[in-house]
Hints:
Pfam families: AMG1_II, AMG1_III, PGM_PMM_IV. InterPro entries: A-D-PHexomutase_a/b/a-I/II/III, A-D-PHexomutase_C, A-D-PHexomutase_C_sf, AMG1_II, AMG1_III. Keywords: Coiled coil. Residues 274-309 form the Alpha-D-phosphohexomutase C-terminal domain. With 311 residues, the protein is α/β, with parallel strands linked by helices. 37% of the residues lie in helices and 21% in strands. It has 10 helices and 13 strands. Helix 2 packs antiparallel against helix 9 (233-248) and helix 5 (134-152) runs antiparallel to helix 9. The chain is globular. The two termini are 21 Å apart. The model has no long low-confidence stretch (mean pLDDT 90).
Amino acid sequence: MVYCRNTSGQYGKATVEGYYQKLSTAFVELTKQASCSGDDQRTLKVDCANGIGALKLSEMKHYFSQGLSVQLFNDGTKGKLNHLCGADFVKSHQKPPQGIEMKSNERCCSFDGDADRIIYYYHDADGQFHLVDGDKIAALISSFLKEPLLEIGDSLSLGVVQTAYANGSSTRYLEEVMKVPVYCTKTGVKHLHHKAQEFDIGVYFEANGHGTVLFSKAAEMKIKQLAKELEEDKKRKAAKMLENVIDLFNQVADRQVIGTTDAERQAVKPPGLQEAINELVKKYRLSRAFVRPSGTEDIVRVYAEADSQIS
């Protein structure tokens, strides 16, 4: 919502409904464009880990009912947060969460409690459990992106960023089969994110299901331009697919541009930020404000207070 406001609505509508509409429209369009096997009416069983994701997904699922039928489990009506369910439980125990009955080849996934991680899994025809963790998700996304990139024929760079804890077979598959460059960083999303920003399109996922795809501003503009200008059907379709992929991923700018001192109450970088805050604070009685990079998410936290709420 902050990004929508800061771009004067170019990124989307600054409401919860606007968020649902943006993601669901891109998803439904993408399912129409992408060639895939299986049933026309796709179904997905979602383990919400008895967390916050259930509340929002129950509101959101109606928006993409055209392309996907979503069934919610462990939705918080009973059971405890992450108890015998959730992404971490599924990955650690290599088995489905409590509360989901799985038939063979049904698509299933699990969030973690605050819904910023996702793990997929299924049973094959022999009842064998198969996990699709972050390493496999990164490989699937990269192979999906490579096809339209080759079709449009533009020299946009695609790179995958992993940590040393990534599955070695996934690294070999990406490098040797997909011919996608793979880079290794220290553990932690902030290191993965920073490296992914060096590419036109950077893919990163930790094995635990935490990750995203980043598109540089230049790549985003180029793709949108090609989607409008290209006359050749195949190329235009590929550009439009990439355009929908951009809208489907939540891209966040690097929080590490903010540096602080004095117990995180003074900003030392970027230059001029603290001076601008000081000027604003002077205008209000008994006021103070400070910004800091979040320790857990790729966002910047803002604190502000004054004698009254009247601006």
